[in-house]
Amino acid sequence: MHTKKRPRMAQEPTIALINIVFLMLIFFMIAGTLAPPLDPQVNLVETAALEGREPPDTLVVYADGTLTLRGTEITSVSAFVDRLVDDATPLSDVRIVPDRDLPAHKLVKIGTDLRALGAEKIFVVSEREIQ
């Protein structure tokens, strides 16, 4: 009576997977405690009620494509660059504050026009909410 032996099935490496997950857990627990916790007696300043104001020499673009500089409406990107040149403001760093409803293709067109007119770096200013 000869019985056939079943072929042995390869085991899945579950122990190795558990070890990796455990090591990741330890790593993130240690990495999370590297920064000292904030003193509970310190109350942070709340800036939610402060008035938002664009930085000076910034091109503000509204959702309809209207451009403003220092609260004054301007007709085009070239008029914006001309104003900066007249005020002896360098074109090395140009900041754009777009409305969140401005179509992306309009923002890209404005950036392309600024580059063509000599802007070296273009920064898009956005809002970051910290909670």
Automatic annotation (TrEMBL):
UniProt GO MF annotations: transmembrane transporter activity
Subcellular location: Cell membrane
Its membrane topology: Single-pass membrane protein; Single-pass type II membrane protein
InterPro entries: ExbD
GO annotation terms (biological process): protein transport
Keyword hit for Signal: no
Protein name, as recorded: Biopolymer transporter ExbD
High-level lineage: Bacteria, Pseudomonadati, Pseudomonadota, Alphaproteobacteria, Rhodobacterales
